[in-house]
Amino acid sequence: MGVIRECGGKMHMTEGKEQDALTDFYEAFKNYDEAGNPRRIQCLKYLVLANMLSDSPINPFDNPEAKPYTDNPEIVAMTSLNEAYRNKEVNELERILAENQESMTKDAFIMAHVQQLLTQARSGGLLRFVQSYSRVSIPIVAKKLNIPEVEIEALLVKLILDRKINGYIDQIQRTLELQEVDDSEASVKALENWTSSLLSFEKTVSRKMA
Q1: Which structural domain, as residue segments, surrounds residue 100?
Q2: Which of 94, 105, 150, 175 gives 20 to 30 Å between its CA and that of 116?
Q3: Does 182 reside within a domain?
C-alpha cells in the first residue's frame, strides 16, 4: 500500500497537484513507518517537499508520526530547508540547498522540484519586500535579495498577473510602481469590463442574425 501511495504522490507532483501529493506521501509514510520499512525516510523527505510546495500552513514535523525523525541525520537538511522556507529566509534556503547539493542530486525526484521550490521561496520573499513601498527600483530589489534582475522582473510579472501585486513595471525607469485600488474603484472597473463584454456579445449576435 505504501508503494502505491508513494507512486500516486509522485504522479500528483508531476501534474502540479501538490496538495493531493501531500496527502498521498503522508499515507505512504505512515504505511512504511508502521511496517518498519526503511523507505519511510525517503518518503518523509517527499512529504516535507510537497508540504512546502503546497504552501501548507501545517508544519509536517508537528505530526506525531514525523516528529521522532526531526533529528535524523538523513532528514536534518529537509528539516532546515522547511524551517527556512516557512520563515521566508531565501538566502538561508539557498545556502542549505548549496551545502546539501551532493545529497540532493542523488534523488532525481527531489532535484526535479528544487527549482520550483526556490522560485516559490524567492517569489514569497519578493512579495514581502515590496509590500511596504509605493515605488521601488528593480535593480535595488535585485541587489537586496541577491537575485538577478531578469529573474526579479519575471517574478514581478507573475505576481502582477496572479493579482498578488497591484501595480505595473515602468520599463524606462526600471521601477515597480504599486497602486492602491479601493473596493469601489475595483467594482467600477469590473462593471466596465462586464459592460464592454456584453456590448461585444450583442454586436456579434446582431451580425450573425443579419
Answers
A1: 2-128
A2: 175
A3: no
Structural contact between residues 111 and 104, judged by C-beta atoms closer than 8 angstroms: yes
Q: Is residue 56 part of a domain?
A: yes
Low-confidence residues in the chain, pLDDT < 70: 181-210
Distance CA 210, CA 207 (A): 5
CA distance 191 to 74: 55
pTM beyond cutoff 0.85: no
Q: In the structure grid, which three cell numbers stand for residue 15, read together?
A: 501534474
Please tell me the distance from the alpha carbon of residue 8 to that of residue 23, in angstroms, as a whole number. Answer: 10
* Grid cell listed for 23: 496527502
Give the Å distances, CA to CA, from 207 to 79, 92, 130, 200, 201: 63, 61, 48, 11, 10
Location of C-alpha cell 536534518: 76
